[in-house]
From TrEMBL:
Name of the protein described by the UniProt record: TRXR3 reductase
Example GO molecular function: flavin adenine dinucleotide binding
GO terms under biological process: cell redox homeostasis; cellular response to oxidative stress; glutathione metabolic process
An annotated GO cellular component: mitochondrion
Species this chain originates from: Platysteira castanea
Family from the record: Belongs to the class-I pyridine nucleotide-disulfide oxidoreductase family.
Length: 211
């Protein structure tokens, strides 16, 4: 049983209506622009309270740091709410960075995307004979931008560690060609991202016969 309690945005009784700050009446969250500015120009909001943004502590820390630098340090850097690496720490971990496939299609159009994917079998599962082809990896590439990787997803052991590493590469403009040119560390789970050659659109079988 997975219990997701979630969070409440306790904004209705702190006086926002007095200064005219608008909130989403459905969830109490605060809409902001890409600089965390509310509809009242001198009021900013960061963290879990933001409407439509990720409820992750590291995101709030980064957004707050960048906001302070813009307001008082002459910076113009904004928080990137898209290429955020995150992990669900279930017994079989799931990690992701960038766009989910559905949002990527909405943003860029299905015809402009290429999705590569593969099942894989971690080495540490071979000795105890755990099920093969339970783990999964996928990258979403923008064909109109040199096949730049705009989404990465992995289901397998240590997905958080894998995702954290690739997140930096995605921020640097990782492309499918660069992944293909990268020598994989065998036998690691992350190696699968350097060997993927089957596209989702091809409909080919992605099952593997070994680690």
């Amino acid at each position: 049983v997975l219990l997701a309690i979630g969070r409440d945005a306790c904004t209705r009784n702190i006086g926002l209506q007095t200064i005219g700050v608008k909130i989403n009446e459905k969830n109490g969250k605060v809409p902001v622009n890409d600089e965390e500015q509310t509809n009242v120009p001198y009021v900013y909001a960061i963290g879990d309270i933001l409407d439509g943004k990720l409820e992750l502590t590291p995101v709030a820390i980064q957004a707050g740091r960048l906001l302070a630098q813009r307001l008082y340090g002459g910076s113009s850097r904004k928080c990137d709410y898209i290429n955020v690496p995150t992990t669900v720490f279930t017994p079989l971990e799931y990690g992701s960075c960038g766009f989910p496939e559905e949002r990527a299609i909405d943003e860029y159009g299905k015809q402009n995307l290429e999705v590569y994917h593969s099942l894989f079998w971690p080495l540490e599962w071979t000795v105890p004979g755990r099920d093969n082809n339970t783990c999964y990896a996928k990258i979403i590439c923008n064909k109109q931008d040199n096949n730049r990787v705009i989404g990465l997803h992995v289901l397998g052991p240590n997905a958080g560690e894998v995702t954290q590493g690739f997140a930096a590469a995605i921020k640097c403009g990782l492309t499918k060609e660069l992944l293909d040119e990268t020598i994989g560390i065998h036998p690691t789970c992350a190696e699968v991202f350097t060997t993927m050659d089957i596209t989702k659109s091809s409909g080919q079988d992605i099952t593997q016969k070994g680690c």
